[in-house]
Amino acid sequence: MSCIWFFLFSIMSGTSTSLDTLTVDQSLHDEQTLVSEGGIIAVGFFSPGNSTRRYLGVWYTNISPITVVWVANRNKPLQNTKGVLKLNENGTLELLNDRNITIWSSNISTKAVNNPVAHPLDSGNFVTGLERYLSSWRSVDDPAEGEYVQKIDLRGYPQLIKFKGPHIKSRGGSWNGLYLVGYPDVVSPIILEKVIINEKEVYYEYDVLDPTIFAVYKLSASGTGQNLYCTTQTKTLQVVSTGDENQCENYAFCGANSICSSDGGRATCECLRGYVPKLPDQWNKAVWFDGCVPRNKSNCKNSNTDGFLTYTHLKLPDTSSSWFNRTMNLDECRKSCLKNCSCAAYANLDIRDGGTGCLLWFNTLTDMRKFSEWGQALYIRVPASELVDTANRISDQLVKFGKVRRPIVGTKFAPNQSFE
Predict the structure, then answer these.
(1) Are 72 and 95 a contacting pair, CB within 8 Å?
(2) What is the C-alpha separation between 259 and 367, in angstroms, rounded?
(3) d(Cα 6, Cα 205) in Å, to the nearest integer?
(4) What is the pLDDT of residues 7-22, one digit of tens each?
(5) CA-CA distance, 334 to 105, in Å (whole number)?
(6) Dihedral over alpha carbons 354, 358, 363, 365 (to 10 degrees)
(7) Residue of 373, 366, 333 lying closest to 350 (CA atoms)
(8) In sequence order, which residues have a C-beta less than 8 Å from that of residue 234 and are 6 or more positions away?
(9) 3-state secondary structure at position 397
(10) Which of 82-91, 229-238, 347-356, 410-419 has the highest mean pLDDT?
(11) How many domains does the chain have?
(12) Cβ-count burial of 400 within 10 angstroms (0-12 exposed, 13-18 middle, 19+ buried)?
C-alpha cells in the first residue's frame, strides 16, 4: 500500500544529539523507542494482543491502553526481537530482520540531504500527494490489513465510503459545509470537522477544540467505526459513539429510489413519491433490496411540465455518479436539472448561509435515509401527472379535517412540494 503516514517522522538535514532522533550512524533496536520532543508520540516495536510477533509501530504515550495508530510492517511481521530500524544516507527508513533483509522501507523520493535524521513529530503533519485511508486490523492479535477500508471516493462529488472487500458496506456521504450527510447525528460540540476539496487535493480532518480532551477514531476488525475520547485527567480511552448501529446504515438497504427509516433500530423502506416497488410481492414481504422504479416516465420532449417534490431531513443519495457546481444558486440548479432528461434530483452543495452550490443526480437515487432531525433537503424530479396526483391527495386529506384548500400546481414550472 502506498499510503505511508509521515506524520511519524520529519526527515531533516543537520546534526543532532537529541534522544528523540535517529541518525545515519544509529539504529533503533527492539525495546528501544523514539519519543517526540513533547513526549506525545512514541515509535518502537510491539506485539499486539496475545501475539509474539513483533511490529514497528507508532502510538500515543499519554493514553491507556496503548493505542497503536500506525504499523510499518503490518503484512510482514518480525518473527523475533532481532528487528532493527535504520536511516540510510538518502533519508529512507529501513526495517531489517535478523538476516539483515529489508522487510519494509519508507520508499520516499526526496532530494539528497546532508546528515539526515528521523524525528517523531507532535504536530501530526504529514507529506501530501499520497492516497491515505483507514484499514482495519485482521484481529486484535494481527495488525495485517483486514476486511474493511474507509476512504474518500473521488467519483462524482467526493464522499466517505466504507468497503468490505470490493463491496460498499456503508456510506458516510458527502460534505455539506457542516457535516458528512450520512453522519449528522454524531456531530460533536468539541470537534471541528473539515473536508477540503479543490483541484489539487481532497481530504478530511478534524480538530479537538478542548485541549483537555484527546479524540481517536478507530475502524475495528469487525468494521465498526468507533469514536473514542479521553481526558488529561483520566488518560483512559472510552467509546462515546459507534457507527453502523442499525440496518439503515447498510449501503442501499432499501434498493434504488427509496428511503430507509429507523424506529428503535428496526428499519422500514418507502418508495419515493412517484415511484412504485420494482417487485411488489417481495416488497410486501419486507424484502426491499430491489428498490423502486418510476410509476410514470417523464415526457422529456417537454421537460417544462416536470416538477419537483421536496424531501427534508435526508441523507443525500450516493454521489458517485453526480455532477456539482460551486457557484450556482438553487434556482439555477433546478433549471440545470430540467435541461437534462437523465437528471433525477438536485440539492444544495453547501447548506451554510442559506445554501449555495448545486449537486445533481442522474437516473437512479441510491442509499437515502430519513433522520428525525438534521439531514438535508433533496428535490426529486417527477412528471406533471405525479404533481397533480400529489396535490389531489393533499386536498383529500384537508377535506377530511374540514378544510378545503387546494395547493396550486403550475402547468409549466410546478412549485416544489414538501414532504417532512
Answers:
(1) yes
(2) 7
(3) 15
(4) 334 333 333 333 477 8
(5) 52
(6) -40
(7) 333
(8) none
(9) helix
(10) 347-356
(11) 2
(12) exposed
Instruction: Please give the full DSSP string across 20-61, using - where no structure is assigned.
Output: T-EETT-EEETT-EEE-TTS-EEEEEE--TT---BEEEEEET
| Residue 314: inside a domain | yes
Task: Match 440496518 to its residue by C-alpha cell.
Answer: 247
With 0-12 / 13-18 / 19 or more C-beta atoms within 10 angstroms meaning exposed / middle / buried, residue 274 is buried
Using CA atoms, how far residue 17 sits from 26, 94, 184, in Å, is: 11, 21, 48
- C-alpha triplet 30, 36, 39: angle, nearest 5°: 100
* pLDDT for position 404: 35
Q: Among 57, 90, 120, identify where a domain stops.
A: 120
pLDDT tens by residue, 86-128: 988 888 899 999 999 999 998 755 455 555 555 565 554 433 3
**Assigned domain for 108 exists:** yes
Q: What's the domain range around 114?
A: 9-120
255 φ/ψ sector (left φ>0, alpha ψ -120 to 50, else beta): left
Which helix (H) or strand (E) segment holds residue 266: the answer is strand 266-271
The SS3 of residue 330 is: helix
Number of other residues whose CB lies within 10 A of the CB of residue 370: 19
- Is 409 a domain residue? yes
State the distance between the two ends of the chain, measured CA to CA, in whole angstroms: 45
**Domain containing 94 — which CATH number?**
2.90.10.10
Average pLDDT over all residues of the chain: 82
**Quick check: is 262 in a domain?**
no
Give every CB contact of residue 371 below 8 A, 6+ residues apart in sequence: 184, 185, 313, 314, 315
The predicted structure's pLDDT at residue 272:
96
The position carrying cell 468494521 is 223
57, 88, 120 — which closes off a domain? Answer: 120
Amino acid letter, 195: V
Report CA-CA distances (Å) from 335 to 213, 280, 340: 47, 34, 9
